[in-house]
Amino acid sequence: MTDIEKRADTTAFSLLYPDGYAGETDGAALSDFTWEQLEADVLLDLRGVSPGEYFTDSPDVIKYRQEVFRDLSAHPELCRALSKMIPLLNDISELRRMGSDVGGAESYLFSITEIEIYVSVISLLHEAIVPVKDALESRALRELARRITAVTESEYYRGLNEKLKELTSRVSEIKSVTVGVNLDGQLKASAAGVLSVNNEPFKSGELIDRILRLDFKSDELTCIAPLTPFDKNQSENRQLAMSNALYSALTDVFRSSVRSWRRIIKEYVLENTDFLLAIMPEIELLTKGTELIASLSEKGASLTYPVIAEGLNGREFEAKGIYNPTVVVKLGGDVVKNDFRFDRDGVLYVLTGPNRGGKSVVTCAVGLCFAMAGLGLPVCADECRIAPCDRIFTHFPTGGEDTIDKGRLGEECSRLERILDEVTPKSLVLLDESLSSTGSYEGSIIAAEVLSGLSVAGCRTIFSTHLHDLAAAVGEINEKCSALGGAAVDNLVAEVGPHGERSFKIKREAPDGKSYARDIAEKYGLSFDGIVKKIKERQEKG
Hints:
This protein has 20 helices and twelve strands. The chain is α/β, with parallel strands linked by helices. The protein has four domains: 3-21 and 59-172 and 259-286; 176-234, no CATH class; 300-511, 3-Layer(aba) Sandwich (Rossmann fold); 516-542, no CATH class. It is elongated, with a radius of gyration of 34 Å. The protein starts with a helix and ends with a helix. Residues 1-8 and 401-405 have low confidence and may be disordered.
């Protein structure tokens, strides 16, 4: 059997990309800014991973990941084992970083520790994945099980374990060293060196310690006088000098072991730990995603793996019972669900309605649906068909606009310009109260221009707004853009009850033209009748 056959298979492998995609991107992107604006960080607390790096619009990649999430959800013990691996793999990374700055005996010890952690990781994963490997359905986890099984059953790995025990034992048995010092005629040290490495610590020669030990004999491990560099009154520099001298001497003692051990590290451990370190970010995304699935399921929230569709020229989307999962995470309990779809009569929507009527919540729900689908996660809906998008653009209020140089309106327009420069027909654009920094007349004119441009671009869009003049202009926008092959624009309305109560349901219909300011005024007692009533009550009391 050759060395290559004895070692683990270290060819390119990914838990997130099928063969042919590993290490490659497909051009899709999701910015950290958009991720935060959608409040997706509330759902997935990823520390070492930027989700946008793994966002994809490839149906093959999405289906590959869906298989993995299904397996991890079905076998939570495997997910827990993968989670436990992450800090261990981080330790290996840190050891490598630290080990690159040292040499000699310290490097030797770092190498042994790295091997110990590596063996722990393999053992942990082997114990979790082997019992369920025949039940796994995902290609990624079946391949991982095959590789881990091949590692643990190889002669090379068994030999590594035996070598590790030998070297660990050798190091752990070192309790002290005997140092010899030559003196010249003036009793000054002329040379010093390690005489022996001992498996027992030296003993204090002080009388009280000898009484406590009931040991009054002196031998080569009984201390006659301590070396002053380790006295508590000595400076840190003098103690460090002594430590460095001992490390240098021990390096000479272990020189042959260090040399042979480095060869083992180079030829085997680096290759195999690199394989695990390479997929560590993927493991974090998969385990955190699986934990999110479990958390939402425990709260009674419905989840479904979307069917990947290609209709409507790659812009198909239909979700029944869609909801915003951040509401579930933050507030718990039941949530209001809506049906939503993009179709030939509505690739772009103007969504109007009262404040706190659910416009922003629904807009984010659609964005999160696309974001989760692009990561391979199930989406928050009862049913879903989706043609994945290549980008998600958000234009939400940030509270941090650069108003000094441009003014708030100028900053809003600048951000919109950047979106229009990058948008494609496969993109999703979400605008929430955009252009609210100016008057409704001016805002509606600019908004109509932007919406017309997005129509010609042909991208799926939700424009959530208080600009009711924009909703009234939908027919005019369609008439103008259809001649240029623009996509259809339609209206959505956040429903309000007869007494101003919010249902948080979204209806596909034209707004009735009324402003929702009156019901807001009444809610806060600011209607004319309400104000007059308060004045009269106060006068009567006075």
